[in-house]
Amino acid sequence: MKPLISVIIPVYNHTHTLQKCVESVFAQTHKPIEVIIVNDGSTDKFQDVVEEIRRKFTVKILEQQNKGASSARNLGFWESGGEYVIFWDADTVAKPEMLEKMADTLLNNPMASYAYSQFKFGWKTIGSHEFDPELLKKNNYIDTTSLIKRKDFPGFGESLKRFQDWDLWLALLETGKTGKFIPEVLYTKIVGGTKNISAWLPSFFYKLPWKLKRVREYEEAKKIIQQKYQI
What we know:
Blueprint: E1 5-11, H1 15-26, E2 34-40, H2 46-56, E3 60-64, H3 69-78, E4 84-87, E5 92-94, H4 98-108, E6 112-121, E7 124-126, H5 133-138, E8 147-149, H6 164-174, E9 178-189, H7 213-229
Parallel strand pairs: 1-2, 1-4, 2-3, 6-9
Antiparallel strand pairs: 4-8, 5-9, 6-7, 6-8
Helix pairs in contact: 1-2
């Protein structure tokens, strides 16, 4: 019997990609039992786009004031019922077999708490690799869009501005929970338009003698995680 999957889509001013995102969810070969869209206080044309989506698909809409992606994801989780959950950002378009491959991976690896894969950020393939706890303590190589067993999910840290995904995987690691890697590109983050939910800078930016504001913010946020987990 196929596991029941809940898809949770947090949205903040990302309606320009939301329809493509939802279409790719409903094109999955392993159909989710529910699709929950959480509007995190968007100020763009969210209602217009959602009306168009509802003409084609059955989705559940949750609304909250702008509290950040982690809060939106947690709200979606508490309103969901699947034994597996996936936090599917509104800028993400997946291959039709993504959920099926992730679910099969968890079924075939019962000790794993989540399944993750490679993905593209626009044209750029973001590197990842087999689960390694020591490497995970140094840098995050696992994206938020991973299939997670409901019983193991501890919630996202809502006080964090960045690295919420890294914080999640480290929290799971502290309790002995691990992930299983799928060495395939199973989805793409759409680049362009307003600021992406996901962000990426070429690695050389972090090595420059002078620091961009985004690089300084990155380093400060990384220190918070390192101090929290003493790594």
